[in-house]
Amino acid sequence: MNRIRKGDQVVVITGKNKGQKGEVLRVDGDRVFVQNINLVKRHTKPNPQANQPGGIVEREASIHISNVQLVNPATGKGERIGFKVLEDGRKVRTYRSSGEVVDA
User: Fold this and answer.
1) Which of 1, 55, 61, 70 has the smallest set of CB atoms within 10 Å of its CB?
2) How far is the CA of 6 from the CAs of 20, 38, 44, 90, 99, in angstroms?
């Protein structure tokens, strides 16, 4: 079970994008892609079969998962994540500072 999942709101804690918040678009192993964060330019060839024009395309590059933290909506800050097993046997993510359950 990953600490960071697709759709989570995260904040970048280090690097050139430090302090920026965004939504996780995808998780690939230990790398995450965050919406409008760590943008890079790629030169692409046109692909008529996929109806894709050529040119310079700006898109998100990956960030290591250790460089982002989940945003706690109650405080608006990045928080560390832990795990807890509930009485009914479900394993859920919790905020380390408050013990509050992340997943409803």
Assistant:
1) 1
2) 17, 17, 26, 20, 22
Q: For residue 82, tell me if it sits in a domain.
A: no
* Structural domain includes residue 41: yes
Q: Mind listing the pLDDT tens digit for each residue in 31-43? A: 999 999 999 999 9
Give me the amino acid identity at 77.
Answer: K
Asked if residue 47 belongs to a domain, the reply is yes
pTM metric for this prediction: 0.86
Domain count within the chain: 1
Q: How many C-beta atoms surround the C-beta of residue 38 within 10 A?
A: 19
pLDDT cut 90: percent of the chain above it: 93
